[in-house]
Amino acid sequence: MARPDGLLMGLEVRVHDWVMGRHLPVPPGTVGTALARLVAEVERRELLRYFPALEYFTGHLGIDPSLLECAHAIGWLAAELARVELRQRLATVSAGLDFLLVRSMAFTQPRVRPGDDDAEQTLARHYTPDRLRIDIQLDLGQPATEEDAAAIDYEVRHRCCRRFADLEVTYCTPVSGRQDPGPGFTRLPRARKAR
Fold it and tell me: Which of 1, 73, 140, 179 is deepest in the core (most CB within 10 A)?
């Protein structure tokens, strides 16, 4: 199936605390700090020498399952709020907007080591489920060029910068609706109908 003409765009966003606070009894940072403290204790006790992604702790005795469920719920809420905001802000930029990936950064591998300075504070920021990685496809209705990509990149930053606490466009690439089968592809002849 061919994709529509448009752009593939990657974003990393952080939803404002005050936006999340309207829907939550506690700030997301409280959950991130509690998770970081527990994960650091498990790392010291089990001598892991690294901080695992949160998925590692599913069913683990050292981490309260309700705390992980809370992190999942907050991550889901952040994702929904970001989807709504992006749909509203980018409605006039493209004919269509498809979310290819929306993932809470709290559930990815942390880029901090146990021996690092301020490791627990960095870990708390990482495990706070208000940051998202979002991959979207914008349908422009016509073949996109590099100039279109630069213009849309600017528009996204301009329209969305105040709507998120942090916003980074990680990539913006034009795509063609024509499907490229790739090297070595041989198209088979159509079967003839029997008479």
Answer: 140
Helix 119-127 with 28-46: angle, nearest 10 deg: 130
Q: Can you tell me the distance from the alpha carbon of 54 to that of 110, in angstroms, rounded to the nearest whole number?
A: 9
85: tokens are 């905001």
| pTM as predicted | 0.83
Q: Is 20 helix (H, G, I), strand (E, B) or coil?
A: helix
Q: What tokens does 58 get?
A: 């599913």
Rounded to an integer, what distance in angstroms lies between the CA atom of residue 78 and that of residue 82?
6
Specify the residue for token string 């006790």: 45
In whole angstroms, give the CA distance from residue 173 to residue 166.
Answer: 21
Cα distances (Å, whole numbers) of residue 92 to 139, 143, 157: 11, 17, 14
Cβ neighbours, 10 Å, residue 195: 3
Q: How far apart are CA 76 and CA 18, in angstroms?
A: 16
Q: Which two tokens stand for residue 28?
A: 């997301």
Q: What is the DSSP string of 42-62?
A: HHHHHT-SS---GGGGTT-TT
Residue 91: the pLDDT is 87
Look at residues 33, 77, 73, 40 and name the one whose alpha carbon lies nearest to residue 57.
Answer: 40
Mean pLDDT, the chain, rounded, equals 87
pLDDT on residue 177 = 63
